[in-house]
Amino acid sequence: MMNFKQNLTVLFWLYRQKAKADGKAPIYARITIDGKYTEMSTGKKVNPASWDLDAKQVTGSGLEVKLANQKLAQLQTDVERIFNGLQTQFPHVTPAMVKNVYQGKPAVEQPKLAKPAAKNEQTVLEVFDESIAKFEKRVERENASFETLEALAQH
């Protein structure tokens, strides 16, 4: 398998059009490989006044600023690690492949087939356990709070 040198860049930007009532706008990541790109939310929102357009990070002090910048640095590291791993498996890596793996999906999604005719019925407990597992993944991605997860698990 012959691999060609590919160039990866990750750019963070503030999606001002999606600002909420509190004034905070989501920070998005643009993953570009050789001119092709895909975008995804980082899960972080900030006040546009604290976004450094040149440095592509949050300015100011405090825990929220520190956590936001740590999240961006971690996302950058994760995307680079995923990209390097995919390059060992595929002759050509696309931004969509990197995004898929980052989001816990297969690098190359298979076409959706018709659903099986008869699926085993799940018990209420199995459905609940599955819901908690999905919520845990949201907590790991910082899209949900750990406290809510604890409350769910206690029921």
From TrEMBL:
Pfam family, one: Arm-DNA-bind_5
GO molecular function: DNA binding
Presence of keyword DNA-binding: yes
InterPro entries noted in UniProt: Arm-DNA-bind_5
Keywords: DNA-binding
Segments forming domain Arm DNA-binding: 12-99
Designated name of the protein: Arm DNA-binding domain-containing protein
Annotated organism of origin: Dyadobacter sp. 676
